[in-house]
Design goal:
The chain is an alpha/beta fold. It is built from 21 helices and 15 strands. Helix 14 (335-351) packs parallel to helix 16 (374-388) and helix 19 packs across helix 20 (452-459). The protein starts with a helix and ends with a helix. The relative contact order is 0.10.
């Protein structure tokens, strides 16, 4: 029997006409604890929407009976607060850009992995859910959103008593009340946004807005509008004025995640914004003064990005005032158990289950596991345990299948020599740089079973960089 909290959770409407994909997406969402309503075409989707009024709609833009953009606009007219995630196929990225301009919250390009899919849904639910009813969300790759400062609690996952975390808490306490820019680094899933939230919550701006913007999750031709806003009619699809993240954060904190993914042209405008504290929306004739504290983050080495010409040196020195490095979970010792037990308690409460804690064998396994996905992966594991089991002590049999196999795979040497062999056989000599880069990426993906996150770790780049390159190749091929 579900708890009242579980039964009142905002539902998700999935509009997808391909039956096999419909079944896969529904299974993933249900396993993650979401209530899902499914429709196979536009007419059925609108009927389901009017009946259930879900807060999030996953909408395939190519439907058999109507254009997906028309359906999205009708949904927004019926319930403006609904967050629509547009789904499109490789080679149709332009359609996704159109959807974003028309008001979609996010978009996904097929094929996408489970983590990216669930992150998009979780972020949409976090923004769509009324604040007085919202529960702390799992940390994930965010789009633009605002949060209450009070969300920075132990329940949110930013916990730990390791020496590394004690140093981080000390730095936050020292710097929070200043105007100094904080630059957070660390692997994906280590809790960089939660660190930014902690800085905000401990500052004298805690009563103001906290606006998060993921620079790697938004198409480059839309990013300027997302940061600085736009005026009605300034470009095709600009049907109303939009303030932008910088103006929305006035009096509070603007968190720029994956800052090294920002296009060079926009880096120049960001530098000017930092120097003048003024924003000028696209199409506006006059700038506006705002009072914003900047916190930024990246999973790359920012100085290396400067050396490679990917990130402006003057912007780097402007932003890199107070550095905070979030350590990987595998280096945090007992923190792993503390986070797992806190997550177990929270998820069990949400799902109405009664768990006693972690069995000793599970504690041992968790502390020896490398956790390549860091805190995000650990939270997903605990969510899986709670959803698929009734309660009691958490034993190894309750853990997701393959967790031990994943550890063995992570301990195995990375197959970089095999990548070298493949590329030597094909010979990169004489190829244009872009083609050589493409062959390297494709060979690495092949060796890692098509896993973009694993290939990104080997190539030492952000997964979003690989997603964008693959999308660009597909668009060019079409």
């Amino acid at each position: 029997m579900k708890s009242p909290a579980s039964s009142s959770r905002p539902s998700v409407l999935l509009v997808e006409d391909t039956l096999s994909l419909q079944m896969v997406y529904r299974s993933i969402l249900a396993t993650a604890g979401h209530r899902v309503t499914v429709a196979a075409n536009a007419a059925e989707g609108l009927e389901q929407f009017r009946t259930h009024r879900p807060m999030v709609v996953l909408l395939d833009l190519i439907l058999p009976d109507r254009d997906g953009l028309e359906v999205m606009q009708e949904i927004q007219a019926l319930q403006p607060e609904t967050r629509v995630i547009a789904i499109t196929a490789n080679g149709s990225v332009n359609r996704a850009v159109e959807a974003m301009r028309a008001g979609a919250h996010d978009f996904l390009v097929k094929p996408f992995d489970e983590g990216k899919f669930l992150s998009a849904v979780q972020n949409a639910l976090a923004e769509a859910t009324p604040r007085d009813a919202a529960k702390p969300a799992d940390p994930a790759v965010p789009a633009t959103r605002s949060r209450d400062a009070g969300e920075v609690t132990e329940g949110s996952g930013f916990i730990g008593t390791s020496d590394a975390m004690k140093r981080i808490h000390g730095t936050i306490a020292s710097v929070a009340r200043s105007m100094a820019t904080v630059f957070i680094t660390g692997e994906s899933g280590t809790g960089k946004e939660l660190c930014a939230l902690a800085v905000h919550a401990n500052s004298n701006r805690a009563g103001g807005p906290f606006i998060a913007l993921n620079c790697g999750a938004i198409p480059q031709d839309l990013l300027e509008s997302e940061v600085f806003g736009h005026m009605k009619g300034s470009f095709t699809g600009a049907i109303s004025d939009k303030p932008g993240a910088a103006a929305a954060a006035d009096g509070g904190t603007l968190f720029l995640d994956e800052i090294c993914e920002m296009a060079p042209a926009l880096q120049t405008k960001l530098l000017r914004f930092l120097q003048t504290s003024t924003v000028q929306p696209v199409g506006a004739t006059r700038p506006r003064k705002v009072n914003v504290r900047i916190v930024c983050a990246t999973n790359q080495d920012p100085l290396d990005a400067v050396r490679r010409g990917q990130f402006r040196e003057d912007l780097y020195y402007r932003l890199y005032v107070v550095p905070i490095h979030m350590p990987p979970l595998r280096d945090r010792g007992q923190d792993i158990i503390e986070i797992a037990e806190a997550a177990l308690s929270r998820f069990a409460s949400e799902e109405g289950r009664d768990f006693h804690g972690l069995a000793p064998s599970v504690r041992s396994l968790m502390q020896s596991h490398p956790w390549p996905g860091n805190v995000r992966q650990l939270l997903n594991v605990m969510r899986n345990v709670v959803v698929l089991n009734q309660g009691g002590w958490v034993t190894p049999e309750m853990l997701p299948p393959g967790l031990a196999d994943e550890k063995a795979a992570a301990d195995a040497p990375v197959a970089v020599p095999r990548v070298t062999e493949m590329l030597t056989a094909n010979s990169l000599l004489g190829l244009p740089l872009a083609e050589a880069e493409r062959r390297l990426i494709e060979a690495t993906l092949e060796l890692h079973g098509g896993s973009i996150p694993k290939a990104a770790r080997v190539l030492d780049v952000s997964p979003s960089t690989l997603y964008r390159k693959i999308e660009a190749w597909s668009a060019k091929a079409s």
